[in-house]
Amino acid sequence: MRGLACKDANTCWITGRSLPRVLRTTDGGNSWVGWSNQSGYSNWLWSAAWTGNGNTALAGTTCYDPADGGATANWVRTTDGQSWQG
């Protein structure tokens, strides 16, 4: 896991190469829940960012390869903190 973004001391997202690609905590890191991947994205994600708006966060990669069937987007986004779309 590589990318880390936090909304506050309790709510953070971490992204990376391991499965699941995104994990979220809402209790300061005591427990982590994998993402609900609605995007079909199956490649790795290196970056994470909280947008400053509710539970909207972004996760992305700089290595998007359109020939890779699992790389359906450079960025995925959540507005509820858990369900991600490309």
Task: Provide structural commentary.
- With 86 residues, the protein is an all-beta fold.
- 0% of the residues lie in helices and 36% in strands.
- The protein has no helices and nine strands.
- The relative contact order is 0.24.
- The mean pLDDT is 87.
Number of strands: 9
Rg result: 12 Å
Shape estimate: globular
Report the end-to-end length measured between terminal Cα atoms: 20 Å
Number of helices: 0
Query: What topology, given as strand order, has the largest sheet?
Result: 5-9-8-7-6
The mean pLDDT is 87
- Strand content bin: 35-45%
- The helicity comes to under 10%
Low-pLDDT segments: none
What is the SS-derived class?
A: mainly beta
List the secondary-structure elements in sequence, H or E: EEEEEEEEE
Spell out the key features of this protein.
mainly beta; single chain; five-stranded mixed beta sheet; four-stranded antiparallel beta sheet; 0% helix; 86 residues
Describe the structure concisely for a colleague.
The chain is mainly β and 86 residues long. It has strands at 3-6, 12-15, 22-25, 33-34, 36-37, 47-50, 57-60, 75-78, 83-85.
Secondary structure layout:
Elements: E1 3-6, E2 12-15, E3 22-25, E4 33-34, E5 36-37, E6 47-50, E7 57-60, E8 75-78, E9 83-85
Parallel strand pairs: 5-9
Antiparallel strand pairs: 1-2, 2-3, 3-4, 6-7, 7-8, 8-9
